[in-house]
């Protein structure tokens, strides 16, 4: 197992050197040398014109079992309301299920969840609903056990869930127990039809590199997807589907952890993950009070207020507003970046927005390259003008 | 209070830029650092020990030999002991194989009250190793912890961040938590710490020494496989308005109205 460079073949051309995501290759005396730390990602192998880089594959993997069929979407709810990401995943799940010519199922845990039939309208053929007062709060211990049992019983071939704070915390536990592969934060999912493999594409390294990942030998193939990455379908009223209500076995499934309290963040009037328009501020705002300007613009547009890490680190606005690699990923119809330079870490969180507007006084700020429209100018002049203009219709 | 902190050495990304000509990462001057989120995990571990006045903080990391530098830095920041899990067999591990390897190390270390990890790394970005580790050890897990309110007598009460605010969770110990940066402000290394980091021993455990099942570590133990790596195409099609600011704003509003975005 590992990587070998055939020095006989190597011409020292150096094609492989810049493609290594980890900078581990260098040409010494006309031959390539590899430093420690290789993750066997294979980027160099593709770049080598003379096939001198050999990566020994893992020992022949057992073929995935054929008994697993169907695509499952975890339909997350909070306080009885289904989250938008559930519908987004159903849209993608429908596409995958159609390609595989199999069923799409939604799985929902909760209590008195509103509008369950919407899951069918959005594409589910079946809905597995476990309804119990115990499941009203998103208790991860219970969710983990319950989901493992359902998957073991019904054997889906693909399971996708939202990369929300809940999904990112409990889905890895499910995968750990099922001993199967899990890919985080996918932005692209499609099927290799020849062998029914789910190709999972995700950004890594702050969005600088994209990696496509498969899980060959284990089932289900599992992935999480950030909210707002895929688009919802228009619901189809009268679409036929089966809602299967399952009992929750409170004797058998228990929780070690206990939820004592939930405290809502009151500064966030419009949730940025769900917003159609986001007005976001960065270091250029200079101080906390200046976020008022953005709030005025946001309220004129019915928008949510976001922020770059710089603004959050300065303490101008709470972390729940942070957009970017270590904050939230958003994909609104319109993202207005004010005084944000556009570091890759920020771009990673918003670059898939439909329309991006950049307002910055530095014409060389990288945000202008990501922008659909740009105004080079003082945000303290531009933003109030924009607010005024939009208010007066 | 015995704390285990899991950390990873990653390339520091503050200066990462993409060369527009070759569309590749410019890596000059990028040094390896402790994954920034793991520094909060370490700080919280050291604070817990200090608050309880006894016990030790053990930092563990899986990685190539040069990851020893990250562990020495951890010692300078207050870790009492450090263990590097390093073996060619560990290379190419996905999150499952990484969590399995860490779980074996935790079992070998023995007695512990809490295991602390950062919320995610800045290179892989998955955030999966912490929860997978907890499950493999069969102990409770709480993600995105922003405050440890109380930790005593085999119980902890913590605050953890969720999209809409925060939750207060109670859990028995030992447990695994992942922490967010709101939890603390990591200290700088002390002079004594720096001195100790130079002389302290960093244990290196290989696969045979850990007695791991070699089919479960590294690339062999990974269920996921990277089949393609590529650089996202960033084609700039920006329209930068010109002229008086007022007319630029007019242009923008016009474009937004046309697209039905106002």
Describe the 3D structure.
The complex is a heterodimer of chains A (393) and B (262). Chain A has 3 domains: 2-56, Alpha-Beta Plaits; 71-246, HUPs (Rossmann fold), CATH 3.40.50; 277-391, 3-Layer(aba) Sandwich (Rossmann fold). Chain A contains 10 helices and 22 strands. Chain A has helices spanning 43-47, 84-100, 117-121, 140-154, 165-178, 291-301, 309-313, 344-350, 367-370, 379-391; strands at residues 2-5, 25-28, 31-34, 53-56, 71-74, 77-78, 81-82, 104-110, 126-131, 158-162, 182-186, 188-192, 197-204, 209-215, 221-225, 242-246, 258-264, 277-281, 304-307, 334-338, 355-360, 373-376. In chain A, the strands form 6 sheets. Chain A has a 7-stranded parallel β-sheet with strand order 11-15-10-5-8-9-16, with helices on both faces. In chain A, strands 19-18-20-21-22 form a 5-stranded parallel β-sheet. A 3-stranded antiparallel β-sheet of chain A has the order 12-13-14. In chain A, strand 13 (197-204) and strand 14 form a beta hairpin. The model of chain A has no long low-confidence stretch (mean pLDDT 90). At the A-B interface, helix 4, helix 5, strand 11, strand 13 and strand 14 of A face strand 3, helix 3, helix 4, strand 9 and strand 10 of B. Strand 22 (373-376) of chain A pairs parallel with strand 15 of chain B, so a sheet runs across the interface.
Task: Give the key terms.
heterodimer, A: 393 residues, Alpha-Beta Plaits, Rossmann fold, seven-stranded parallel beta sheet, five-stranded parallel beta sheet, 27% strand, B: 262 residues, alpha/beta, nine-stranded mixed beta sheet, two-stranded antiparallel sheet, 7 helices, 30% strand, globular
């Amino acid at each position: 197992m590992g990587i070998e460079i055939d020095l006989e073949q190597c011409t020292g051309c150096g094609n492989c050197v810049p493609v290594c995501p980890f900078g581990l290759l260098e040409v010494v005396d006309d031959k390539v040398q590899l430093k420690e730390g290789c993750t066997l990602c294979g980027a160099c192998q593709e770049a080598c014109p003379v096939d001198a880089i050999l990566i020994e594959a893992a020992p022949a993997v057992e073929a995935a079992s054929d008994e697993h069929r169907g695509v499952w979407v975890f339909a997350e709810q909070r306080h009885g309301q289904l989250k938008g990401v559930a519908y987004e995943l159903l849209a993608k799940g429908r596409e995958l299920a159609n390609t595989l010519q199999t069923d799409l199922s939604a799985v929902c845990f909760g209590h008195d969840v509103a509008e369950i039939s919407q899951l069918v309208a959005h594409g589910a053929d079946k809905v597995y609903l476990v309804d119990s007062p115990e499941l009203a709060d998103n208790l991860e211990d219970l969710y983990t056990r319950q989901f493992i049992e359902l998957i073991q019983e019904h054997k889906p071939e693909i399971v996708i869930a939202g990369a929300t704070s809940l999904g990112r915390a409990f889905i890895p536990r499910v995968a750990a127990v099922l001993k199967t592969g899990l890919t985080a934060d996918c932005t692209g999912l499609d099927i290799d039809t020849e062998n029914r493999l789910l190709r999972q594409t995700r950004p890594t390294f702050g969005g600088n590199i994209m990696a496509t990942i498969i899980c060959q030998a284990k089932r289900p193939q599992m992935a999480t997807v950030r909210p707002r990455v895929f688009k919802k379908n228009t619901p189809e009223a009268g679409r036929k589907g089966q809602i299967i209500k399952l009992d929750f076995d409170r004797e058998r499934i228990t929780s070690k952890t206990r939820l004592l309290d939930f405290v809502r963040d009151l500064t966030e009037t419009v949730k940025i993950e769900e917003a159609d328009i986001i007005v976001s501020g960065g270091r250029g705002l200079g101080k906390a009070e200046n976020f008022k300007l953005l709030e005025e613009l946001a309220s004129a547009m019915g928008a949510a207020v976001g922020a770059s890490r710089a603004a959050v680190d300065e303490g101008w606005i709470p972390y729940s507003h942070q957009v970017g690699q270590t904050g939230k990923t958003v994909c609104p119809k319109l993202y207005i970046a004010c005084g944000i330079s556009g570091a890759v870490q920020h771009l990673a969180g918003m670059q898939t927005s439909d329309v991006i507007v950049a307002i910055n006084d530095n014409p060389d700020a990288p945000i202008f390259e990501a922008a659909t429209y740009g105004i080079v100018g003082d945000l303290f002049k531009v933003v109030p003008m924009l607010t005024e203009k939009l208010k007066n219709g | 209070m015995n704390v285990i902190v899991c950390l990873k050495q990653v390339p520091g990304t503050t200066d990462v830029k993409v060369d527009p000509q070759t569309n590749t990462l410019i890596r000059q001057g990028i040094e390896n650092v402790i994954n920034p989120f793991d520094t909060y995990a370490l700080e919280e571990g050291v604070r817990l020990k200090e608050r309880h006045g006894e016990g030790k903080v053990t930092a563990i990391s899986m990685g190539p030999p040069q990851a020893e530098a990250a562990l020495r830095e951890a010692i300078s920041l207050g870790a009492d002991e450090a263990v590097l899990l390093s073996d060619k067999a560990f290379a190419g591990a996905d999150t499952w194989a990484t969590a399995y390897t860490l779980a074996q190390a935790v079992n070998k270390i023995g007695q512990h009250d809490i295991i602390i990890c950062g919320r995610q790394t800045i290179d892989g970005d998955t955030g999966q190793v912490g929860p997978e580790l907890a499950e493999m050890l069969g102990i409770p897990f709480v993600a995105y912890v922003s405050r440890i309110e109380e930790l005593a007598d085999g119980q902890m009460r913590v605050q953890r961040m969720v999209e809409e605010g925060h939750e207060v969770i109670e859990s028995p110990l030992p447990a695994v938590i992942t922490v967010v940066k709101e939890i603390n402000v990591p200290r700088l290394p002390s002079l004594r710490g720096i001195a100790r980091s130079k002389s302290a021993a960093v244990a290196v455990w290989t696969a045979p020494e850990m007695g791991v099942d070699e089919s479960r570590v590294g690339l062999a133990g990974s269920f996921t496989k990277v089949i393609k790596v590529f650089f996202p195409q960033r084609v700039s099609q920006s329209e930068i308005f010109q002229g008086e600011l007022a007319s630029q704003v007019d242009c923008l509003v016009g474009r937004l109205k046309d697209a039905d975005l106002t």
